[in-house]
Amino acid sequence: MAGATGIGLAGVTAAPAAATSPLLWERPGRLGAPRVSGLHLQFGSDASREAVVSWHTTASVSNPRVKYGTSQGGFGRTEQAQTTTYRDAKSGTEVQVHHARLTGLHPDTDYVYAALHDGATPELGTLRTAPRGRGAFTFTSFGDQGTPTLGKLTATGYANDNLGSPAAGDTTAGVEHIAPLFHLVNGDLCYANLSTDRVRTWSDWFENNSRSARHRPWMPAAGNHENELGNGPIGYGAYQAYFSLPAAGADQELSGLWYSFTAGAVRVISLNNDDIAYQDAGNSYVHGYSGGAQQRWLEHELAAADADPEIDWIVVCMHQVVISTADKFNGADLGIRETWVPLFDRYGVDLVVCGHEHHYERSHPIRGQQPTDTRTPIPVATGTELIDTTKGTVHMVIGGGGTSAPSNGLFFSPAKCRVITGVGPLDPATGKRPPLYVVEDAPWSAYRDGEHSYGFAAFEVDPGERGGNTTIAVTYYAVTGPYGDLLPVDRFTLTRPRGARGAGSLSR
């Protein structure tokens, strides 16, 4: 990034002489101030003008704030942070999360910033805002990461108790090789609900990922393993505290569980589909928790995006899946097929990225459903390289973010799908409602990777020319080794006419 300022013992030096607002940094005051931990970014609803800088502590701090400015002008502005707290019900530890909301930013612009509170050494980061209107950029996506750290002491030494593996660090390094504008995390971030120490596990996840997330927003969707017993009214209290996500008009207890933001001509809609999925896979069974509020918001959001001629692409990020060809794993969920897929069809969703299954696969474009009990999606084309998303939605399972339980070795051959059609009565031995499965054919299956356990997808958005097509070039990369070495495994291109939304014809 051009125009970087120097860093001295007291923090960041004054801005260059050309800056209009030179800044003198305070020397840390009292000893023992907690450090700025887990520094990370989020976009606001307009990614060209709004961002949030966040970090956390387990002790109270004074005057949390962010100093920021352009990479050419130096640190000339200050924004106070607002503090959100939650007390982990398992350990009793209170975590304080500090969120500084930056507004009035310039589109397509590089910023530098430093997060600090009194007595702490400033932590530095960079941010690039999205283009306003049609512009080229790249984003990435994976789910089901875990952590690379060993957090549980056993009789034979330390072990990872939250389904993490060393690959959870490798994938972060891989994302940084691409250096996207933002990264979508498709649920099951750190699996803290499984761990001995939930607060440590969240901290480990942020420590691993801050090397990327302090430079580009990591925009999450809550998965079933973000549901932690006792944390908040429905179990997502930790997730809701750590992230300050765009407002979606939800009640306070549901804030942050679904949201949307716009980057260029792409509208990203993030959902929490534990609300409508049948599977019982978190610390508590929360099926139907929003009372239909998320469904009503989603339909309104999709209708608005599809009616907006400045939006070309609608991308949905969620955790549980509509498609899967893995046997003896989670499977596809009928609840999503019943409740949300008809809306994806009606409003011309282009792309759905998910996790939950710990492998990579994708569908042909699908539109409509067979009149079966499982509502099997109908493929509308079978080409695998150039895909017209005005004809149907492409679903991608990208669940190899680093979990120690990959599912790429469990594919049906030939391709079939196990669909969860409901749950049985509560099993006292497990405390869970066992899933009920039906196996169906998978005519929608386009590609699946049985060779590589870990990786992510990169999406290169090309706005195209007026009167022509806009495209997204998609590459799925397998990640190998501690330096995030990338191996391209699957490549294809999504295409649609530029500026066609709002006309009410091409999206259906």
TrEMBL record:
Gene3D superfamilies: 3.60.21.10, Purple acid phosphatase-like, N-terminal. InterPro entries: Calcineurin-like_PHP (IPR004843), Metallo-depent_PP-like (IPR029052), PAPs-like (IPR039331), PAPs_N (IPR015914), Purple_acid_Pase-like_N (IPR008963). Keywords: Signal. This is Metallophosphoesterase family protein. Transmembrane segments: none annotated. It holds the Pfam family Pur_ac_phosph_N. Residues 38-119 form the Purple acid phosphatase N-terminal domain. Signal peptide: none annotated. Residues 181-360 form the Calcineurin-like phosphoesterase domain.
